[in-house]
């Protein structure tokens, strides 16, 4: 007797296509790749530090040291906001344009102002530190010839040790740029 529901291993014979679903929003900002393990681990450590700061603030507040509790609360809010912003760093795409989010600033370029999107072999920073090595970077050039600072490289916190993931993400962004320009 066949059961009217799918088993947990069902659906493996269905073919996956890269066409967007009819209900997926084209104007929603989305990152075409997942945050890397270095970025997620750093944010997790920062959130753990914020938890310790909040706990310390609670202990100081119970001991009637309100100014110290306020300082711990302020520091923990600053660490939490920094961790959340660190997770947003990267390239975001939508039907409206290309957005480059950095730690302290965001640059949005509409598709009609994007000149070219390509990968280039050049010296890149390892995890954003001053040390540079030869690697690949995603270069976005505006229509007026001005280049955005290369934020997505194969040695940044999202792609260090994940060369294939960098290639797939760069291809996805280049393809989206070619489609929407």
List its salient traits.
181 residues; elongated
Can you characterise this structure?
The structure is a single chain. This protein is α+β, with helices and mostly antiparallel strands and 181 residues long. The protein has helices spanning 37-62, 66-88, 163-180; strands at 90-93, 97-101, 106-110, 114-125, 132-142. A hairpin with a 4-residue loop joins strand 2 and strand 3. Helix 1 packs antiparallel against helix 2. The protein is elongated, with a radius of gyration of 22 Å. The model has no long low-confidence stretch (mean pLDDT 86).
In short, what is this structure?
This protein has 181 residues and is α+β, with helices and mostly antiparallel strands. It has helices at 37-62, 66-88, 163-180; strands spanning 90-93, 97-101, 106-110, 114-125, 132-142. Helix content is 37%, strand content 20%.
Layout of SSEs?
Blueprint lengths: L36 H26 L3 H23 L1 E4 L3 E5 L4 E5 L3 E12 L6 E11 L20 H18 L1
Antiparallel strand pairs: 1-2, 2-3, 4-5
Helix pairs in contact: 1-2
Helix and strand composition category: alpha+beta
Question: H/E series, N to C?
Answer: HHEEEEEH
Mean pLDDT: 86
Poorly predicted runs: none
Provide the gyration radius in Å.
Answer: 22 Å
Across the major sheet, the strand order is 1-2-3
Largest sheet: 3 strands, antiparallel
Q: Helicity, in percent?
A: 25-40%
Number of strands: 5
- Give the amount of beta strand, in percent: 15-25%
State the distance separating the first and last CA atoms. Answer: 54 Å
- Report the principal-axis shape: elongated
How many helices? The count is 3
